[in-house]
Amino acid sequence: MTSSDVDPLVTRMRPFGTTIFAEMSSLAVRTGAVNLGQGFPDTDGPPEMLTAAAQALAAGRNQYPPGPGIPELRAALAAHQRRFWGLEYDPDSEVVVTAGATEAVTAAMLALCEPGDEVVCFEPYYDSYAASIALAGAVRRPVTLRPGSDGRYAYDPDELRAAFGARTRLVLLNSPHNPTGKVFTPDELTFVAQLCQEHDAYAITDEVYEHLAFTDAVSGHVPLATLPGMRERTLRISSAGKTFSCTGWKVGWASGPAQLVSAVLRVKQFLTFVNAAPLQPAVAVALALPDDYFTAFRAGLQTRRDQLVGGLTAAGFDVLNPEGTYFVTADITALGGTDGVDFCRALPELAGVVAVPTQVFYDDPAAGRRLIRFAFCKRPDVLTEAVNRLHRLPDFRRSTPPRSEV
Ligand code: PMP
Ligand code: GLN
User: Fold this and answer.
1) CATH architecture of the domain with range 47-289
2) What is the DSSP code string of 196-249?
3) Residue 288 CA, ligand 1 centroid: distance in Å
4) d(C-alpha 299, C-alpha 232), whole Å
5) CA-based torsion, 276, 96, 76, 43: positive or negative
6) Which CATH entry fits the domain spanning 3-45+292-397: 2.40.50.140, 3.90.1150.10, 3.90.1170.40, 3.40.190.10?
7) In sequence order, what are the beta bridge partners of 188?
8) From ligand 2's centre to the CA of 19, what distance in Å?
9) Measured in angstroms, how far is the CA atom of residue 30 from the centroid of ligand 2?
10) CB of 98 closer than 6 A to ligand 2?
11) Is the shortest distance between the CB of 26 and ligand 2 below 6 Å?
């Protein structure tokens, strides 16, 4: 056998193909469908931020910034977290700037997990989690979020308790949660915090949707680090992409006790070293925008959530109303669908719309087989067009040949 006959990819990465977001976005381009798959806005972020970026480029801020991030951005990150969440972080030792939240999560896994350590997470999970846990040689222990009769996704406390054990190193928690739109309540977070403390585990929190808990959620967004005993064991991760509608900038950050931040920085310096020099001062400007910006941002997304939820419901989908994020999930059973992957692969041809099957975000795909995700971070006219198209969707059973069950 020659080296060209064998897959050169390391074993631990073989289960991971192309991300579902790339697959579905290219399907949208190929078919001309309205893309409600990948979560990226189709409008620009605040003009003050864009102007600051252009000025920084023109002013020559184009060389390597300091490893942890430029001082003005770290100061802005500390001030922002104090203003919104009452959390105090030392900008010199407790904040690090990363290449998006994605790098922060991966660097945290590589920095904190020995091979064989266990990571408790909730499924459906954001796709990069499984890959970054695998890269670290760690083992994921997913706990399933299931839709309840109240229309909210919830975990079973017994299952969560059972997921913690002697090898638990950390819990990876995303709230507001992609793809379900769930906002973890203070009670749900308190139980997570209790288990972390019982098992002396760290918490890594992915809070990229921290400003997108809608006003009708059971509770607003509560950072896990604000709970008693949690600041000292929590690394909070977020990014500019969602809050400032600049997903392509990939400016993220992690905040926490100095030892955790320093561990992340140790790995980050060998992944990307530094990133996004001229964008860092612009994100500092954005973080300091008045409260009105953040209120209007959330209200705008909430209106578009309502528009898409109403439209999907009228088109026959069984919608699970999201309490936050960019996303809404829906059950396809009433439309004759039994498998979200089949449904999403056929949807562009049948209706000219792209969505994402959420079963790919589960270790137990059966738990999400009939659920699909739509993004509503799009202009109202785009959402209207998508909904109009979905109204013309024929019954799925009659329009596609059955795929053999896998
Ligand atoms: N975490 C979650 C839950 C996300 O939805 C996303 C997608 N934006 C990311 C992380 C990645 O963020 P970034 O683009 O800043 O790497
Ligand atoms: N976070 C975005 C989503 O969930 C996509 C990011 C990506 O394409 N990796 O749709």
Assistant:
1) 3-Layer(aba) Sandwich (3.40)
2) HHHTT-EEEEE-TTTT-B-TTSSS----GGGSTTTGGGEEEEEEHHHHTT-TTT
3) 21
4) 33
5) positive
6) 3.90.1150.10
7) none
8) 9
9) 19
10) no
11) no
β-partners of residue 320 are 329
Ligand approaching nearest to the C-alpha of 102: 1
Q: Strands 146-147 and 153-154, how do they pair? A: antiparallel
Which atom of ligand 2 sits closest to the CA of residue 21? 8
Q: What is the pLDDT along the chain (406 residues), one digit of tens a residue?
A: 566 678 999 999 999 988 888 889 899 999 999 999 999 999 999 999 999 999 999 999 999 999 999 999 999 999 999 999 999 999 999 999 999 999 999 999 999 999 999 999 999 999 999 999 999 999 999 999 999 989 899 999 999 999 999 999 999 999 999 999 999 999 999 999 999 999 999 999 999 999 999 999 999 999 999 999 999 999 999 999 999 999 999 999 999 999 999 999 999 999 999 999 999 999 999 999 999 999 999 999 999 999 999 999 999 999 999 999 999 999 999 999 999 999 999 999 999 999 999 999 999 999 999 999 999 999 999 999 999 999 988 777 666 655 544 3
For ligand 2, atom 3: residue with the closest CA? 39
Nearest CA to ligand 2 atom 7: 21
Ligand 1 centre distance from Cα of residue 49 (Å): 20
